[in-house]
Amino acid sequence: MKKHEIVETWIRNSIDEGGIAPGERLPSESQLCKQFGVSRNAVRQGIRTLLYEGRVETVKGVGTFCRPRKPSIPSTNIGLVEFFISSYIYPEIIHGCYNTLSKKGFDLLLNQSEYNLEHERAILMDLRKKKVGGIIIAPIYGAGDRSNALLLEEIQNEGIAIVLCDDYFPGRSFSSVVLDDHAGGEEAASHLWRKGHRKIGLFYQKDFLVKATRMKGVVDFLGKQGAPVPDAWIVGFNGQGPTSGAPAAAERFLREAKELPTAFVCGNDEDALHLIETAEKRGLCVPDDLSVVGFDNSNIAQLEKVSLTSVDHPSFLIGEKAAEIILDKIFHPEVRFVTQTVITPSLVERSSVRSLEPAAPIPPSTLLQGRTE
């Protein structure tokens, strides 16, 4: 018998005879190497065979487990709670979740909170009553710690898996999948800086942690350059979607401002569109009179008439990652783990930013240094 078959046979027999129970973690690679006097490659080859047979499964960073014969869960329904479900970036998040969960036989129950805290609470109470297998949620978290975090903690303590999608609660123990929004704000500001902009304003929803974090990234980058943002160019408002205060805020600022910045970084692409439309109504042209950078690289940014430079939001990937974590929690309830997945942002350049300074020519001496004989 080959070395990997020795390991494989022992694990298989242990599972069949009840020595390793469904959901129980297998001995570590090093323990199996020592027990059978074999190499790590032999152990891994044996485990790969058992993975293929569906007898075991791995949880990244945690270990390999005996796969439950039947999921010990009350339901194969997963509640998904997003601000909206049919517009902006949300369909792609839903698609990512569905793509992962459907392969494991799970169904999605779609819910739309409309960024309304009481509505979100009612949805969560309903999902709790239905005893869903898990909840993936883009939670509302506003100024003054306005949230349903305590309710979510209660639901999680009752055994229903919870994963926060595209946001998090500071200081609370929930697994989450998020974009590095602070780094995204820094990237947006850096792009404008490279284009020669020194007078940069902020236009964002101030009662939403994600957008506030993005703007902090902008402020921190500009602070390091010795170019702090004047208070007069920080335009904040509340609400989003149909209740967004963006149009009124844009109108008020453009009407009353004594001096305009040369560019704005916006909390997301919807906010950017409100600002652009209001500016155009007042006779300003983007990017000739005002440059604009958005966030999320949504379908709005890709419209030909907008052509908005925007920090990308990998919505499908975020949905997939959230679904993968919820499945790990469902199949391994005995492993009480909390994980934060942070995705590095990137900027997609289009034509909404004007270059104020031509790029400096490369000195001939620098070119010569790169030559080889």
In which order are the strands of the major sheet placed?
Answer: 4-3-5-6-7-13
Q: What is the domain total for the residues?
A: 3
Mean pLDDT: 91
Instruction: Please give the count of helices.
Output: 12
Broad shape: elongated
Short description:
The protein contains twelve helices and 14 strands. It has 373 residues and is α/β, with parallel strands linked by helices. The model is unreliable at 359-373 (pLDDT under 50).
Q: How is this fold's topology laid out?
A:
Blueprint: H1 3-16, H2 29-36, H3 40-53, E1 56-59, E2 63-66, E3 77-82, H4 90-101, E4 107-112, H5 117-130, E5 134-137, H6 149-157, E6 161-165, E7 175-179, H7 181-194, E8 200-205, H8 209-224, E9 234-237, H9 246-256, E10 263-266, H10 269-281, E11 291-296, E12 309-312, H11 315-331, E13 340-343, E14 347-348, H12 364-369
Description:
The protein has 373 residues and is an alpha/beta fold. The protein folds into 3 domains: 3-66, Winged helix-like DNA-binding domain superfamily/Winged helix DNA-binding domain (Arc Repressor Mutant, subunit A, Orthogonal Bundle); 77-179 and 315-345, Rossmann fold (3-Layer(aba) Sandwich); 181-313, Response regulator (Rossmann fold, 3-Layer(aba) Sandwich). It has 12 helices and 14 strands. The strands form 3 sheets. Strands 4-3-5-6-7-13 form a 6-stranded parallel beta sheet, with helices on both faces. Strands 9-8-10-11-12-14 form a 6-stranded mixed beta sheet, sandwiched between helices. It has a two-stranded antiparallel sheet with strand order 1-2. Helix 8 (209-224) links the parallel strand 8 (200-205) and strand 9. Helix 1 packs across helix 3 (40-53), helix 4 packs parallel to helix 11 (315-331) and helix 7 (181-194) crosses helix 8. The longest helix has 17 residues, at 315-331. The protein starts with a helix and ends with a helix.
